[in-house]
Amino acid sequence: MSYVSDVMEQVVARNEGEREFHQAVREVLDSLEPVIERHPEYQEYLILERITEPERVIMFRVPWFDDKGRVQVNRGFRIEMNSAIGPYKGGLRFHPTVNLGILKFLAFEQVFKNSLTTLPMGGGKGGSDFDPKGKSDNEVMRFCQSFMTELFRHIGPDTDVPAGDIGVGGREIGFLFGQYKRIRNEFTGVITGKALSWGGSLIRPEATGYGTTYFAEEMLATRNDSIKGKVCTVSGSGNVAQYTVEKINELGGKVVSLSDSHGTIYDPEGINAEKLAFVLELKNVKRGRIREYADKFPGVEYRQGQRPWSIKCDCAFPSATQNEISGADAKTLIDNGCFVISEGANMPTDPEGVEVFLDSKILFGPGKAANAGGVAVSGLEMSQNSLRLSWTREEVDQRLKDIMKSIHNQSYEAAEEYGMKGNLVAGANIAGFIKVADAMMQQGLV
Fold first, then answer.
1. pTM listed for this prediction
2. Label partner for 353 (CA 20 to 30 A): which of 69, 225, 327, 363?
3. Among the four given CATH numbers 3.30.9.10, 3.40.50.300, 3.40.50.10860, 1.10.357.140, the one describing domain 57-187
4. Looking at 89, 125, 283, 435, which residue is catalytic?
5. Which residues of 284-323 are buried (b: 16+ CB within 10 A; e: fewer)?
6. Cα separations (Å) of 11 from 14, 29, 102, 143?
């Protein structure tokens, strides 16, 4: 058995039942065989064993009162995965599906994603099985205050800098930051995704969606092509999906779908700026369901319980959640003429689907590269907080575009160097890994 296979076996044995974590680790390790052959020192110093083991796992209870005065209890987590190249950095997710295995997978992915951004950030992730949907603002505030009352002792601007993720938007970030400031009696850049009036960065809400679109544009540029005139499907209808639609429209493409956990809308006329404004109001303010879009606009089809992957398109942007594209979905996309996939969500394609995309030689941008725009602008927000200044919208957008170009170039060149030209999955894994592994070697056995 090879060293890489042996490590994978150990990971499965030591992290029983954590399927998403196993999947994320396997995808990275499968890319690293040629790297280990060329750098036997990584095996000698057990870099793979160390990089797959979190530096710290924090788990705690979160008691809070609901609006009826009843006690509720949730679990809180923070996985501090790797700090070799900077303070831990990664989002907080509030969703009923949150558990240790999912957060370890997200934290592991975050290590390599952050490495690719060229910014000095390690990898972490956290959250709770609390569901903000259907809760009042006061209930969300009481939960966030209780959550931060424990988390505050483990984070800081030079230690661990959380951000938002699924279920954690501007409202939640505000409540979390307010409680941190209250307890620590200090105003620091400890959380990113803040409002503009108190330390946030322009472009931060848009960053993941914009970045995913910029990455697709970089992939298309290798074939002397662009998004202009392309029919695009987007899944999800939250932050990432919304701003993916906005940037695709700006670059001349046409988006024909959005979705949520209940179903998909198909709008053959395209989701223009006016329709997108309705989606922003529906999802961000009213917190309604995407089916209301079909009720509002004529000629729109609502597909109950379905995802958008059967809709004919040139480009697909999975922007909802992990494993939303199966092997069968991937084949359907290819059969329907799709030749660009840019992942806005974290690991939205399952292993069979990834294999289909790689075998078909389409342009496939994996999440750890394609959706790194969010954490990249979080890093830029940290820089602005440290300097006590704000950059213009144009400046942040240009920096984001440059970072996404750099991520694409690093991934493309690493794949070529190790004999897998065009395989951006392997390229992103290798480029992200080598930077972190070298830092771990240089810092000793810690």
1. 0.92
2. 225
3. 3.40.50.10860
4. 125
5. beeeebbbbbbeeeeebebbeeebbbbbebbbbbbbbbbb
6. 5, 11, 15, 33
DSSP 3-state helix, strand, coil percentages of the chain (rounded to 5)? 50, 15, 35
Beta carbons of 432 and 111 less than 8 angstroms apart: yes
If one counts every other C-beta atom within 10 angstroms of the C-beta of residue 186, the result is 10
Annotation: CATH topology of 207-370 = Rossmann fold (3.40.50)
The residue with tokens 């329907």 is 336
207-370 matches 57-187 in CATH topology: yes
d(CA 203, CA 210): 9
Which residues fall within 8 angstroms of residue 411, CB to CB, at 6 or more apart?
116, 369, 424, 427, 428, 431
Instruction: Tell me if residue 401 is catalytic.
Output: no
| Cα separation, 388 vs 365, whole angstroms | 35
What would the DSSP string read from start to end of 201-212? -TTTTTHHHHHH
Q: Per residue of the chain (446 residues), what is the pLDDT tens digit? A: 699 999 999 999 999 999 999 999 999 999 999 999 999 999 999 999 999 999 999 999 999 999 999 999 999 999 999 999 999 999 999 999 999 999 999 999 999 999 999 999 999 999 999 999 999 999 999 999 999 999 999 999 999 999 999 899 999 999 999 999 999 999 999 999 999 999 999 999 999 999 999 999 999 999 999 999 999 999 999 999 999 999 999 999 999 999 999 999 999 999 999 999 999 999 988 889 999 999 999 999 999 999 999 999 999 999 998 899 999 999 999 999 999 999 999 889 999 999 999 999 999 999 999 999 999 999 999 999 999 999 999 999 999 999 999 999 999 999 999 999 999 999 999 999 999 999 999 999 99
Question: Tokens at residue 397, please?
Answer: 């957008």
Helix 100-116 crosses helix 19-31 at what angle (to 10 degrees)?
30
What number of H helices and E strands is found in the chain? Answer: 18, 13
Question: Distance (Å, rounded) from C-alpha 414 to C-alpha 430?
Answer: 6
β 56-65/71-82 pair status: antiparallel
Domain boundaries, the chain: 57-187, 207-370
